């Protein structure tokens, strides 16, 4: 018995030298397939996208050539500034409305969900079990001129017959808010769930009112979640074009619609690439501000958990 | 159950009451009522989808108005050969996507959750980018890549490559979270009991993180089933379900789309519930 004890304690140093280099390589080996895959199919394509954005020429005039065509950026931004501004405007509204709608919901699940937390969260994520396109199409029916909502209200004479929601900015913003709401709720929930309930009790023990305990304790601690929710809602929203296409009109076109049309219909690759790169840079700026403030660990953590 | 409730009161009676015990406020129902309303709101398109799969519309094209009940669309589910084949395509992409992304993503999740190594921060940042990047940017960059390397034709292969790419990051973060929540001492204990690192991994670590792997795999599967924006750039003529539906939004949506959507929804729910039950039994 004593012999084995000694073996166990004395064994590690002897093997240390050999295994430690091998051990140090283990994480690299594990990460390698993903790093190679994401390198080739995520990072490299971004490089190609950047290169394409600096090309000149046309599909029907002998193809594109790389020529440091910086003018692509100036042109596509100035030509499409309306759509850029509209995308940012809609995304900002969607983010703010989403936060206001999602915060109480996330708060309730995190603080009062009890043993139902998992099931409640599952209900929040329920929409994901139906394809994004189909969900949005259903909103077209729900908000339709003689659909279940407007049709009923018109039937009771509460709305004029000509009243419509579809094809207005309201419909697009409502659709976007709906589609991104789970992305807004989830990071908020993760941040709120981490808060130690005893802190709130402590505040109340010290005669803080419920409202004061919330604003002085809970809310400040949930700020990382708010940041993550803003990032995960605002950034994807700026690239969205499905809601604008299915619920909006030509007056609600967003920058995503332009990129998609340029890439897939008018085959203006450099112009489309330049617009994509602008979106990407905007996103990188926001993400690095966030990473600087809260650390990459928190960023990915809030996305994950 | 009844035993604990009988025994509990005396203990609680001694600890209570705290300084300001929350009063029975009349507003106490506001938050729960609001939350339930929000969940109904989140689920509303699902209700509509199911209800409208029975909508007796004329001309086999969906409309906003509800005409009455019919089971015609459920009975004539396969009236549109392209719709049927798009469902087949969706699954032939989603299944290999889930398998490949789960393997690659799990390995990365293990590396990130268990070890500290140089370059870790960089990898985390790339994962974050892959999750947060607008889909349209990822889709257009992949199309650019496939054009630049002169891919002979867009279709199954390019879709699969694209889907695995956006799923890896989600699997990795899911597995990483599980690995970090795992009790490392169990693995140490196995090794103290002379299990080789490999045996310890397969006998102890893997079963412990399996729920994370299953969750990650399901997530990848669902993401792949659902994807439209990225697929729309690289599908060639290999139409998946969301892409076929998108095409019909311009000419009128057959009610069978709602039927297929309902079937997929129910399948997804059953899978998710089964996986939760399986995990519960394991832990």
CATH fold node name of the domain at 79-244 and 256-282 in chain B: MetI-like fold
CATH C-level of the largest domain in chain A: Mainly Alpha
CATH architecture call of the domain at 79-244 and 256-282 in chain B: Orthogonal Bundle
Give the count of structural domains of chain A. 2
The greatest interface between two protein chains, and residues involved on each side, is: A-B, 99 and 96 residues
Distance between the termini of chain B: 21 Å
Outline type of chain B: globular
CATH architecture of the largest domain in chain A: Orthogonal Bundle
List the total number of helices of chain A: 13
Q: What is Rg of chain A?
A: 26 Å
Gap from first CA to last CA of chain A? 45 Å
Helix content of chain B: over 70%
Report the mean per-residue pLDDT of chain B as an integer: 84
CATH fold descriptor of the largest domain in chain A: MetI-like fold
Proportion in helices of chain A: over 70%
Indicate the radius of gyration of chain B in whole angstroms: 25 Å
CATH class of the domain at 79-244 and 256-282 in chain B: Mainly Alpha
3D structure, described in words:
- The complex is a heterodimer of chains A (305) and B (283).
- Chain A is mostly helical and 305 residues long.
- Chain A folds into 2 domains: 1-52, no CATH class; 74-304, MetI-like (MetI-like fold, Orthogonal Bundle), CATH 1.10.3720.10.
- Chain A has 13 helices and 2 strands; from the N terminus they run H-E-E-H-H-H-H-H-H-H-H-H-H-H-H.
- Chain A has a two-stranded antiparallel ribbon with strand order 1-2.
- In chain A, a hairpin with a 4-residue loop joins strand 1 and strand 2 (63-66).
- In chain A, helix 1 (2-52) packs antiparallel against helix 12 (269-294).
- Chain B is mainly α.
- Chain B has a domain at 79-244 and 256-282: Orthogonal Bundle (MetI-like fold), CATH 1.10.3720.
- Helix content of chain B is 73%, strand content 0%.
- Chain B has 12 helices and no strands.
- The radius of gyration of chain B is 25 Å and the shape is globular.
């Amino acid at each position: 018995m004593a012999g084995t004890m000694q073996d166990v304690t004395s064994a590690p140093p002897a093997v240390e030298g050999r295994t430690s280099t091998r051990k140090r390589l283990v994480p690299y080996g594990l990460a390698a397939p993903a790093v190679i895959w994401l390198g080739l199919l995520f990072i490299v394509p971004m490089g190609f996208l950047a290169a394409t954005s600096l090309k000149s020429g046309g599909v029907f005039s002998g193809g594109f050539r790389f020529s440091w065509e910086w003018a692509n950026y100036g042109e596509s931004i100035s030509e499409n500034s309306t759509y850029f501004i509209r995308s940012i405007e809609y995304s900002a509204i969607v983010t703010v409305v989403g936060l206001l709608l999602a915060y109480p919901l996330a708060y309730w699940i995190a603080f009062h969900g009890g043993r139902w937390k998992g099931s409640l969260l599952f209900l929040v994520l329920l929409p994901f079990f139906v394809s994004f396109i189909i969900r949005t199409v259903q909103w077209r029916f729900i908000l339709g001129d003689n659909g279940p909502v407007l049709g009923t209200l018109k039937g009771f004479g509460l709305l004029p017959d000509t009243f419509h929601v579809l094809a207005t900015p309201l419909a697009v913003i409502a659709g976007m808010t709906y589609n991104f709401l789970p992305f807004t709720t989830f990071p908020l929930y993760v941040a709120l769930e981490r808060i130690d309930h005893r802190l709130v009790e402590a505040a109340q023990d010290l005669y803080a009112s419920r409202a004061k305990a919330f604003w002085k304790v809970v809310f400040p601690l949930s700020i990382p979640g708010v940041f993550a929710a803003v990032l995960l809602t605002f950034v994807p929203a700026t690239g969205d074009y499905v809601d604008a296409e299915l619920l909006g009109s030509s007056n609600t076109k967003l920058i995503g619609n332009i990129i998609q049309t340029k890439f897939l219909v008018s085959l203006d690759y450099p112009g489309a690439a330049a617009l994509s790169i602008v979106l990407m840079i905007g996103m990188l700026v926001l993400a690095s501000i966030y990473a600087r403030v809260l650390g990459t660990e928190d960023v990915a953590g809030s996305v994950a958990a | 159950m009844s035993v604990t409730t009988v025994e509990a009161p005396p203990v609680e009676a001694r600890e209570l009451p705290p300084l300001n015990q929350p009063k029975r406020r009349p507003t106490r129902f506001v938050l729960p009522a609001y939350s339930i309303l929000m969940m109904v709101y989140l689920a509303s398109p699902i209700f509509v989808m199911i209800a409208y799969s029975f909508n007796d519309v004329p001309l086999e094209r969906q409309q906003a108005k509800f005409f009455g009940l019919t089971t015609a669309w459920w009975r004539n589910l396969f009236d549109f050969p392209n719709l049927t084949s798009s469902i087949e395509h969706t699954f032939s992409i989603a299944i290999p996507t889930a398998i490949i992304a789960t393997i690659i993503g799990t390995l990365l999740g293990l590396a990130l959750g268990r070890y500290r190594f140089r370059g870790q921060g960089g990898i985390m940042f790339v994962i974050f980018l892959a999750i947060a990047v607008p889909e349209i940017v990822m889709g257009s960059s992949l199309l650019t890549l496939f054009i630049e390397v002169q891919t002979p034709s867009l279709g199954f292969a390019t879709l699969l490559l694209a889907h695995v790419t956006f799923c890896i990051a989600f699997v990795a973060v899911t597995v990483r979270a599980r690995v970090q929540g795992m009790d490392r001492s169990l693995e140490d204990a196995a090794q103290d009991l002379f299990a080789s690192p490999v045996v310890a991994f397969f006998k102890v670590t893997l079963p412990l993180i399996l729920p994370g792997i299953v969750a990650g795999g399901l997530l990848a599967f669902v993401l792949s089933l659902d994807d439209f924006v990225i697929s729309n750039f690289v599908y060639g003529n290999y139409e998946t379900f969301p892409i076929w539906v998108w095409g019909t939004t311009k000419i009128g949506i057959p009610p069978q789309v709602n039927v297929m959507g309902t079937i997929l929804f129910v399948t997804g729910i059953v899978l998710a519930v089964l996986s939760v039950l399986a995990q519960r039994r394991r832990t």
